[in-house]
Amino acid sequence: MNRKVIIATENLGKFREIKELLLDDFDEFYSLRDFKERVEIVEDSPIYIENALKKARKVGNRFGYNTISDDSGLEVDALNGRPGILSSRYGKNDNERIEKLLFELKDVPWEKRTARFVAYVIFYMPEKGTFYGFYGDLKGYICFEKKGDRGFGFDPVFYLPEYDRYLAEIELIEKNKISHRGKAILALKSFLNAEFFK
Ligand code: IMP
Which one of 77, 89, 168, 180 has the minimum C-beta count within 10 Å? Predict the structure, then answer.
């Protein structure tokens, strides 16, 4: 199998996390920022895996390399699962999204601030037209204030009780071992090794 892969994202936080897990499996990694041509992807499905598949297919067919895409989100129980699939559109940037979340949860007590990250990953092979899907999640609590400067997105307000730390306090390698995206990508890695890299 060709050992070049596109990680279909403009988000460098996501790109770094996924690449780090697959360093042994591929020789060359590209993000959407590595191509001059912009591929317009409208993530308009209410179903994560459909958005991931749409993204992977469009990018893989356009550039001709095997492609990994993920659609992820933060589901907060006190907000009935919001922002969920709309997480990236919950505000203009990470800071605005965090401020909005803390404001919406300002009267919610600690024990009701439970939440989970979910990640749906697609591996698409344009030459064969085949695709494979993987899932991971990570449970925790939304804190009252920000802490830590690692990671991206909602990491500074996501608390992990088992580790007594915020996600933004954890190193990339550690985050990858426990995170929603890490779990989905590790499942993809096992699959690739069993099927193609024997
Ligand atoms: P999308 O998958 O590009 O639609 O964006 C998912 C959004 O969910 C991101 O923009 C973040 O706001 C949030 N998110 C997903 N995964 C993570 C993570 O690992 N840490 C923090 N925020 C995340």
Answer: 89
